[in-house]
Design goal:
Distance between the termini: 45 Å
Low-confidence stretches: none
Structural class: alpha+beta
Strand order of the largest sheet: 1-2-3-4
Shape: globular
Mean pLDDT: 88
Number of strands: 4
Radius of gyration: 15 Å
Strand content: 25-35%
Number of helices: 1
Length: about 80
C-alpha cells in the first residue's frame, strides 16, 4: 500500500442528525488539484483499511450518485421517507 500522508483531514459522510459511532464512510483529499490528486476512503469501523482513488474518478462517482445511476443498489431499503 502507498504511504498515506499523516496530516489528512477526514470528513465523515453521515446524516446531519446521525447519532452514535456509525459505521460511516470518511473521505480525505490528498495534495493536488488535478484529476490525478489522491482521494482516500475508509470506514469508521475499520479505519486502518483505506481505499485510494483519484479526484477524476471520485468526481465521476459523485456525479453518478447525483444522477441516480446507483439507485438500484438501494431499492427497497427505505420503504418510506424520513419522518413517515
Amino acid at each position: 500500500m502507498t504511504d498515506m500522508p499523516s496530516d489528512l483531514v477526514w470528513t465523515r459522510a453521515a446524516p446531519p442528525d446521525a447519532t452514535g459511532p456509525g459505521p460511516w464512510i470518511e473521505i480525505a483529499f490528498g495534495e493536488g488539484d488535478d484529476g490525478e490528486a489522491p482521494v482516500y476512503l475508509r470506514g469508521t469501523n475499520a479505519p486502518e483499511t483505506v481505499v485510494t482513488t483519484n479526484r477524476r474518478k471520485w468526481d465521476a462517482f459523485v456525479l453518478g450518485v447525483q444522477a441516480g445511476e446507483f439507485d438500484h443498489f438501494v431499492e427497497g431499503v427505505l420503504e418510506s421517507g424520513p419522518g413517515e
